[in-house]
Amino acid sequence: MKKLFMPALLVAALFAVSPASAQKKVTPGSEKAASQSYALQPQLSTLGWVGKKVTGQHNGNVQFKDGTVLVRGSQIVGGTFVVDMNSLKVEDIKEQEYNGKLVGHLRSEDFFSIDKNPTSTFKITSVTPLKGDTNGNNATVAGDLTIKGITQKITFPAKVGVKGGVASASGTATIDRTKFDIKYGSKSFFESIGDKAIMDEFTMSFNVIAKK
What we know:
Blueprint: H1 2-15, H2 19-22, E1 36-40, E2 46-53, E3 56-72, E4 75-90, H3 96-107, E5 119-129, E6 139-147, E7 150-163, E8 166-176, E9 198-211
Antiparallel strand pairs: 1-3, 1-9, 2-3, 2-9, 3-4, 4-5, 5-6, 6-7, 7-8, 8-9
C-alpha cells in the first residue's frame, strides 16, 4: 500500500501546478514596445533632386504619393515611401520648350522609363544613432530603394525625430544611377563621351513629415 501511495502523491503534486505558474516569467520591459504607424503627409513633405554633368547640372523635384513611418516610443524604427514618378519636374530651366524636352528625356528608357515604372519606393530596414555629424544629422538610415523595378541597398545620414504626434526626417541621399540600369551618358560605360558625360551619382534631398 505504501508503494502505491508515493507515486500517487507525486502525480497529484504535478497536476497541482497551474499552467500560469509553469509559463516562463516575463520581466516588465523585457519585450519591445509595439510600433505605431504614422501616415506620411505628402502635401507637407518634399523630395528634390540634383543631377550633374561635365558642363553643369540640373535640379528639380518629385512628389511622394503615400507612405508610412513606424515609430516605437520616441524613435523612428522603419517606414515605407512611394514616389510618384509622373510628378517629376525640372526647376532650373525656365524656357518651356527646353524644359519639356529634358523632362521627356528623363521620362524615357534612357533614364527612368516612367511609363513602365510610374512609382519608385524606399523601405527603411534600419535606423542607427549617429553622433558628431557636422550637418546636424543624428542617425544613419539604411534601406531598400527600388527604381525601374530594380532594388538596391542604400545608406545615408539624416536628422530624425518624433515629437507631439509628428515624425520627421530630413537629409540628402547620394544614389548611383548605374545600379538601376540608368547608364545614359555615363563615362563608366561610354569612355569616349568626353564633355557630354553625365555623372553616375545624383542626390535626393528630402524632408518627410508623418502624423500619428
